[in-house]
Amino acid sequence: MTSIPACPRCGRAPLTALRVAYTRNRWGGGGPRPRPEQWWECPACGWVGYRDTETAPLTTMRRPEGGEADCFFCGEEDGNVVSEPWRQEDGELRDWIVCLHCGTSNQRRVRPPAGG
Ligand SMILES: [Zn+2]
Ligand SMILES: [Zn+2]
User: Fold this and answer.
1) Contacts of 44 (CB under 8 A, 6+ apart)
2) SS3 for 50?
3) CA of 80 relative to ligand 1 center, distance in Å
4) Is 28 helix (H, G, I), strand (E, B) or coil?
5) Residue 76 to residue 104: CA distance in whole angstroms
6) What is the mean pLDDT of residues 5-25?
7) Model-wide pTM > 0.85
8) Cα–Cα distance between 22 and 3 in angstroms, integer?
9) What DSSP assignment string belongs to 38-94?
């Protein structure tokens, strides 16, 4: 039995489960494989995020604006969500972009703001 978490942002609604699966690179002709994370969306406020297991905390993702929102791989408009950036041990800033349409994820180097 899967427990449905409440929205961490507005708390008003139980989240809606999203089916996110790898639909590209289907080696061997198999069907789409679900991604390892559980993905959720809030029908009330639009919050989107995931958790690694049923007992793990929810991680918030954001929906990027502009060209960043469109998947580079499958071309789906507004398919992408992006994590908060984190700093690696070598000081490099990275974030994680995931297309909820085709399941493709990619770590990116984040450029520091110009002029700093
Ligand atoms: Zn909400
Ligand atoms: Zn895609």
Assistant:
1) 7, 10, 12, 13
2) strand
3) 19
4) helix
5) 11
6) 93
7) yes
8) 24
9) EEEE-TTT--EEEESSTTSPPEEEB---GGGGS-TTT--TT-EEEPPPEE-TTS-EE
